[in-house]
């Protein structure tokens, strides 16, 4: 099925979602890796945006946009002084980081009252025609369209001592799909591509019939996604816990 990364910046990030993430007033935002869509959108809205990624090729591409400040660095070891940013954002990438390291770093570079915002674009299978497509493909491969996007990793943010106050919202996002695009998506599923010619054609014929029955009088289907966003407020007290001395020596609270 289509990757969330294939959607445009505006499709990825409806304006209400962006405003909920970082507010409407210009602010200083740190973007952690990922695609260029979110940092470019934020810069276009007047925010001061700095983005880091350990991949030099990604940094070179981002640096082509003069509105962005780019630095090659790891999210788990940010090269910034404390309290530099109003918000730290990470879209579709949080699962790549070591949570025990990245969360303390996010907290350290946030200003008092600052927020960490993590987002994932995940497919919404609640629409009837999508349910039928899932059923069709799972007749070929029981694991088809499982949709493992990495959003389960956000549990580490929700339980972090550095971010005790967490809110979450979901925003509906639609991606247009026409008949050739849908058939290409089905054909490119590994289990379908591995079928012999006759069986593969039968599956594609069923997919074509599904499309035609779902779009009477229309040229395209709309494939639904949910943009899931978590917003958490930093608590700096956990970063400055005092050293306690007992009879056995130094004990540093963790």
Short characterization:
With 254 residues, the protein is of the alpha/beta class.
Shape: elongated
The low-confidence parts are: 1-10, 241-246, 248-254
Straight-line distance between termini: 43 Å
Oligomer description: single chain
Beta-strand content bin: 25-35%
Major β-sheet annotation: 7 strands, mixed
Order of helices and strands: HHEHEHEEHEHHEHHHEEE
Radius of gyration: 22 Å
* Annotation, overall tally of beta strands: 9
Helix content: 25-40%
Biggest β-sheet: strands ordered side by side in the sheet: 3-2-1-4-5-7-6
Helix tally?
A: 10
Report mean pLDDT, rounded to a whole number: 87
* Structural class computed from helices and strand pairing: alpha/beta
Describe this structure in words.
With 254 residues, this protein is of the alpha/beta class. Helices cover 33% and strands 27% of the residues. The chain is built from 10 helices and 9 strands. The chain has a 7-stranded mixed sheet. A two-stranded antiparallel sheet has the order 8-9. Helix 4 links the parallel strand 2 and strand 3. The longest helix is centred in the last third of the chain and has 18 residues. The chain starts with 8 loop residues before the first helix and ends with a strand.
What's the arrangement of secondary structure elements?
Layout: H1 9-12, H2 15-22, E1 28-32, H3 37-44, E2 48-53, H4 56-62, E3 68-72, E4 85-91, H5 99-109, E5 110-123, H6 128-138, H7 155-158, E6 165-177, H8 179-187, H9 190-193, H10 197-214, E7 221-233, E8 244-246, E9 249-251
Parallel strand pairs: 1-2, 1-4, 2-3, 4-5
Antiparallel strand pairs: 5-7, 6-7, 8-9
């Amino acid at each position: 099925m289509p990757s969330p990364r294939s959607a445009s910046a505006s499709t990825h990030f409806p304006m209400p979602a962006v405003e909920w993430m970082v507010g409407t007033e210009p602010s200083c935002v740190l973007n952690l890796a990922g695609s260029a869509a979110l940092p470019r959108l934020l810069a276009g809205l007047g925010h001061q945006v700095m983005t880091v990624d350990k991949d030099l090729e990604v940094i070179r591409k981002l640096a082509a946009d003069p509105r962005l400040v780019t630095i090659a660095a790891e999210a788990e070891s940010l090269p910034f002084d404390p309290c530099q940013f109003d918000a730290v954002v990470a879209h579709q990438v949080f699962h790549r980081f070591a949570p025990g390291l990245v969360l303390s770093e996010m907290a350290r570079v946030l200003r008092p009252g600052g927020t960490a915002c993590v987002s994932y674009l995940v497919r919404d299978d609640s629409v009837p025609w999508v349910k039928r497509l899932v059923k069709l493909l799972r007749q070929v491969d029981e694991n088809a369209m499982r949709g493992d996007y990495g959003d389960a990793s956000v549990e580490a943010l929700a339980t972090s001592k550095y971010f005790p106050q967490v809110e979450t919202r979901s925003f509906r996002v639609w991606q247009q799909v026409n008949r050739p695009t849908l058939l290409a998506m089905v054909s490119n599923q590994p289990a379908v591509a591995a079928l012999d010619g006759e069986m593969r054609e039968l599956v594609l014929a069923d997919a074509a019939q599904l499309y035609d029955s779902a779009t009477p009088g229309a040229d395209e289907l709309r494939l639904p996604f949910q943009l899931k966003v978590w917003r958490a407020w930093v608590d700096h007290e956990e970063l400055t816990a005092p050293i306690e001395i007992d009879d056995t020596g130094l004990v540093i609270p963790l």
